[in-house]
Amino acid sequence: MFPWFLSGILSLLCLLHLYWALGGRWALDKVNPIVDGKPLLKLSSLACFGASISFAIAAAVPLVRMDASLRKWLLIAMAAAFAARAVGDFRHTGFFKSIKGTEFAYWDTRLYSPLNVLLASLAALCVR
Known about the structure:
The chain contains four helices and two strands. The protein is mainly α. A hairpin with a 2-residue loop joins β1 and β2 (38-39). The two termini are 13 Å apart. The chain has a two-stranded antiparallel ribbon.
């Protein structure tokens, strides 16, 4: 059950990033920290497409037949990456960010960081 749930969430994130890569704008203004009136990251179509591909590959890890040792290490790496994102950079992202008065910070605290905790937990639960 956990592998399917993890794969489903990652697949939805893949589709959302693909939507942005193809020119969609829904919620795009809420996913990038603003520093001195400028976005912190350049969210180009190519960057969003790359993220989409990364999420697609990650979504396959819990479900595709592969060497058990390889799957284990990929899931551990995924759990670590999502946990690190939830902790954040101590300035702009994560539960321990110091910049808190922005729209991004609002969504990061209530959605993005908890989602990363969920993904890290699911990846860890999929390790056999």
